[in-house]
Amino acid sequence: xxxxxxxxxxRKASIVPDIPYLSHLMEVAGMVMTCGFPETVVVxxxxxxxIEDQGSETRDLIREHFGEEVLAxxxxxxxxxxxxxxxxxxxxxxxxxxxxxxxxxxxxxxIIVPDKxxxxxxxxxxxxxxxxxxxxxxLKEVSxxxxxxxxxxxxxxxxxxxxxxxxxxxxxxxQKVAVQALLQELExxxxxxxxx
Length: 196
Known about the structure:
With about 200 residues, this protein is an all-alpha fold. Helix content is about 65%, strand content about 0%.
């Protein structure tokens, strides 16, 4: 179903052109699974971008096929103001997303950390291969390359800190340790993407 719903959608930061977007979803779901989360969280990871990419009408589809718990997780992963083709301004969406992390459960953190880690890993590979040209596909509403990179750095740095703060609060569980390890890898990846 994820393959059908994201058919024709391609990765932006991929080194190899025209890689199906499904590759991102499968890698994220795989990381979620290796963290030891139950099947509902793994399924939500496969559909975590569906509302953002295909619009709010997909809510009913998720609910019908996978239930309220999966839908709630997907909704929690959905960036405010980013449903479907007509998205709000990038900075406002990211600010709202960062603010919401302070209310996220361990299960939601267990999806959004692998999501950002997979994207950051891919972006790092592309930057190593083609340099600053790798940033052109991202944040298209900003044309100034230094500003584009600065905004990406701001978001990723703030994301890592917001998740650290929330992980401190959520109850201890084996999955929490696994998410903390992925977050540490994300922090290291961000440091290499945006050297001081």
